[in-house]
């Protein structure tokens, strides 16, 4: 099947499929015309990739885990190497959550302090640009 059909069958756009291929998560043959050609197993593979991405795994993590994946969900065997990789990723996610919680609490403290001093306007902000909001 061509990339457009794989995209239609999986709901993943062609750009992402090409990215998965570049990351060695997905394989395609090339037809005589140079177009990517995927076999039927690509549909399952893309679904596995999407589930693993949804679990917060990086493409590097997925490349390591994917050869052992079974089924769409996918199921992963409990071998020590895979468990170690997943535990490492879970630890990184927990660290990120801790940092986010600290940032949230600090921002809430600033908001509380600012609300307690509302009405006081120093320095004057009417001519100032609003603070940039990062995405």
Summed up:
By secondary structure, the protein is an all-alpha fold. The protein is 56% helix and 3% strand. Strand 1 and strand 2 form a beta hairpin.
The low-confidence runs, each spanning 5 or more residues with pLDDT under 50, are none
Instruction: Characterize the overall form.
Output: elongated
Please report the number of helical segments.
Answer: 5
Q: What's the helical proportion of residues?
A: 55-70%
Walk me through the structure.
With 135 residues, the protein is an all-alpha fold. The chain is built from 5 helices and 2 strands. It has helices spanning 3-10, 14-22, 41-54, 59-65, 80-116; strands at 29-30, 36-37. The longest helix has 37 residues, at 80-116.
Question: Which structural traits does this protein have?
Answer:
two-stranded antiparallel sheet, 5 helices, mainly alpha, 135 residues
Describe the secondary-structure layout.
Elements: H1 3-10, H2 14-22, E1 29-30, E2 36-37, H3 41-54, H4 59-65, H5 80-116
Antiparallel strand pairs: 1-2
């Amino acid at each position: 099947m061509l990339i457009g059909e794989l995209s239609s069958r999986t709901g993943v756009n062609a750009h992402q499929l090409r990215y998965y291929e570049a990351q060695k998560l997905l394989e395609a043959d090339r037809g005589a015309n140079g177009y990517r050609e995927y076999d039927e197993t690509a549909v399952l593979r893309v679904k596995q990739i999407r589930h693993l991405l949804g679990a917060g795994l990086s493409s590097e993590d997925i490349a390591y885990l994917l050869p052992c994946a079974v089924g769409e969900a996918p199921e992963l065997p409990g071998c020590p190497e895979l468990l170690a990789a997943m535990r490492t990723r879970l630890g990184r996610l927990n660290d990120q959550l801790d940092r986010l919680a600290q940032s949230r609490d600090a921002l809430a403290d600033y908001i509380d302090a600012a609300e307690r001093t509302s009405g006081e306007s120093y320095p004057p902000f009417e001519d100032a640009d609003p603070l940039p909001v990062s995405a």
